[in-house]
Amino acid sequence: MSSFFRARRVGYTAATLTILTTGSYLTLRAPHASSNNHGGPNGQLESLRRKIADPTAVVPSRGVQKKHLIGAERSNPLDILVVGGGATGCGVALDAVTRGLSVGLVERDDFSSGTSSRSTKLIHGGVRYLEKAVFNLDYGQLKLVFHALEERKQVIDNAPHLCHALPCMTPCFSWFEALYYWVGLKMYDLVAGRRLLHLSRYYSAQESAELFPTLARKGKDRSLKGTVVYYDGQMNDSRVNVGLACTAALAGAAVMNHAEVVSFIKEDGGERIIGARIRDNLSGTEFDTYAKVVVNAGGPFCDSVRNLADKDAKPMICPSSGVHIVLPDYYSPEGMGLIVPKTKDGRVVFMLPWLGRTVAGTTDSNTSITMLPEPHEDEIEFILDAICDYLNVKVRRTDVLSAWSGIRPLATDPNAKNTESISRDHVVCEDYPGLVTITGGKWTTYRSMAEDAVNAAIKSGKLNPANSSLTSNVRLVGGDGWDPAFFTVLAQEYTRMKVSHTGKVVPGIMDTAAAKHLSHSYGTKGENVAAIAQVFLFLHYMCFTSPLFFLPI
């Protein structure tokens, strides 16, 4: 029995038993208000890292978070209240709380329930943006690529268990294409500089077929001359988003989902926003939360938040629909993506391995703003049509396992005189006193977007942070101390229940697939999950093997 009920760290099992037997955990603590400890940025950073990496740390319950928000009264307001629990909103909360500010965040649905979970799952600088920058001599596009490539490496470093480098293959059906893409992707490497993931390289047609067996070598009066493979990042977008929310909560922010801002509280005379009326969408109750500054990170819905402050606010969102489809795993090999560089209308389509399946997309078309955008059949057919010429397998509509649509919040600056050009970069503005809006941008640059928004909020509210932004050096919960071999710890130290050939439930080893899933989903916190599961397994085992175990003494 001792070999069955073991854990790598006694703390995990002890904490789990406490939760199971008493329904609570004594070290659970409410988010703290900042004390503005000026011990220096290095001291602040080390203290923060220890707090987030503490194996016994528990994210406070939703009830505790709500209580903290209610406690932010007019006489004791939060420094910043964030509206929106997507990547940008959670990034803002994390950036602000790690500067020693008191922070609250509310999300009307669930964390990452919107656009942030409906991406291409890529962390990239934007190959097509670099092409536009070169041919249009557009310095703005080039600056966007420089910045995104810098942030790409930062995202991977901060969440190594959820992000990794992914090779992407670019097919070349003429020698001109081979030279063109080789030179272009070498420029991509050059722009990345010290943030380079891996060098791009050329592969012959034979080598390419070995690396990507379903890649077509002939078709429509053309033959494959070779491919150029370059590297970008891939992430589990929804888990990174939730990781941001959990990390912010562990650092001291009060984050609450299913909590909707229904109106803003203004100073007497209506000169400045000083808080918000919030409805708990689970209970239907409403409460007030006061803050020196409100940050609007509502993504495609940021205009509706702005309209709560000023019903005549000029719209700044031009929504664009991005559709993706999921195909069976045999469409792409594990560990290698494919980029269709030119579709019939000039767009780029990716086909990437994803959690044992293949994700293909995306589209870029005008759309209306809705809570649950649905992919249209013509968009699905567009993606299938784009990839079929590059594959030697029959591309069938019946192979589409699922599809989703996300709304990109392409932004225009409401204060700009010329709104003809819609930017792919982000926009930060304060068009109503006390309400800072951050929108636009892309997943890859969420961290720097959050930093810019917090800088604007500090200026607006005349706040007193303890230090400058630390998020470039803060790993998300589960990332500190993690390495790719961490799954072996789980496989060796924890057990799973197995059904024997006689039908009896007995303890057995944890298989590699389960250990890898826990490792890549939760990082070092995978041990906490395994410990909880092991306690339940132990109790289940004792129930069937020793009925007297549960009798009162």
UniProtKB/TrEMBL annotation:
Gene Ontology terms describing biological process: glycerol-3-phosphate metabolic process
**Annotated keywords:** FAD, Flavoprotein, Oxidoreductase
Q: Which GO terms describe its molecular function?
A: glycerol-3-phosphate dehydrogenase (quinone) activity
Q: What is its EC number?
A: 1.1.5.3
Cofactor(s) for this protein? FAD
**Reaction catalyzed:** a quinone + sn-glycerol 3-phosphate = dihydroxyacetone phosphate + a quinol
GO annotation, cellular component aspect: mitochondrion
Residues forming the FAD dependent oxidoreductase domain are 79-447
> Which InterPro entries does its entry note?
FAD-dep_OxRdtase, FAD/NAD-bd_sf, G3P_DH_FAD-dep
Family of this protein: Belongs to the FAD-dependent glycerol-3-phosphate dehydrogenase family.
Designated name of the protein: Glycerol-3-phosphate dehydrogenase
Q: What is the species listed in this Swiss-Prot or TrEMBL entry?
A: Artemisia annua (Sweet wormwood)
